[in-house]
Amino acid sequence: MKVVILGGHGFLGTMLAQRLLQKNCLMDRNNTSQAIDELVLVDQMPPQISVEGATSLIGDITDPGFLKTVIDEDVTSIFHLAAVVSAAAEADFDLGMRVNLEATRNVLECCRNLPRPPWLVFSSSLAVFGNAPAVVMDDTPALPLSSYGTQKVIGEYLSCEYTRKGFVDARCLRLPTITIRPGKPNKAASSFISSILREPLQGLEAICPVTRDMNLWVQSPPTVIENLIHAHDTPASAWDEGPRILNLPGLSVSVDEMVAALKRAGGDTSLIRWQTDSEIARLVGSWPGAMNTARATQMGFKGDDIIDDIIRDYLDFYAQQTQPA
Ligand SMILES: NC(=O)c1ccc[n+]([C@@H]2O[C@H](COP(=O)([O-])OP(=O)(O)OC[C@H]3O[C@@H](n4cnc5c(N)ncnc54)[C@H](O)[C@@H]3O)[C@@H](O)[C@H]2O)c1
Questions:
Q1: What integer pLDDT is reported at residue 142 of this predicted model?
Q2: 20 to 30 A from 181, CA-CA: which of 12, 125, 175, 213?
């Protein structure tokens, strides 16, 4: 199998590449495990961490000519993770439209031109919901209140339509907010959800731009990676029982509960500065704080149990990264 990860040098792309190389197999159409012969990571940014065993290609997926050279007739599977994240897409409307919408259409068109429809796992987001009810159900309409959410929901619809036409075999996952993201804050409106845990655990200050009572729908990095692979490996027949769009299981946790868990993990909660940012509060506050994801659970997708476990796993990961060589 030839597997391409678009956005392969990003946070989730790098983790997914590492996990795929470790597994070295994916399921084929007959539900038989097949070896991964080639793994290609495509990104406009050079890799931060080199992933041995994968090929890295630097390029812009908004360029259809470049994308055609990447998605060639040997490609069996594509994980489309490239995106301009939420606050950045809100700040630069044209960039968000080009990358999150037009490039997704380019990806689908490339798939359409292949001799065999490839698998396409598309990373959508809980941001497709706006002014969400207290608990979002599988059939709650996606009515986004952001450019990013709008671009993602259109990408989902296009993926479903190209699947219906037989051009691709797409599976769209609405990812919860992934926490704890290692490294530094990024341009996602949800960046603080990692910062308020990650920074104090390292003795650094963090800013919390929302109030303590805001509920968040989160998932840990290792869990989302398994879910992305599971989306690929789940037979088309199971997907065809409903739309090719799925709300992923997650953990509903308030900011206050996260701060309490930080304290239990030995983090200094006084390092959190409470500084409301009305735009971030509006964006993140319009997203679901809880979901009932019956269909995803029935299809075998996983969530996390408690925030304390997510913090513990992060501390183990962080300790490994900072160990002297
Ligand atoms: N991390 C989360 O909390 C979260 C939540 C919901 C959805 N998602 C979605 O999951 C995916 C991966 O998220 P992530 O956290 O790894 O993001 P990330 O920003 O770390 O990775 C995205 C990658 O896409 C690349 N990219 C952007 N524009 C490109 C272009 N024009 N051409 C080529 N590459 C380009 C970036 O350079 C980056 O490396 C995204 O689609 C995101 O919208 C993430």
A1: 97
A2: 213
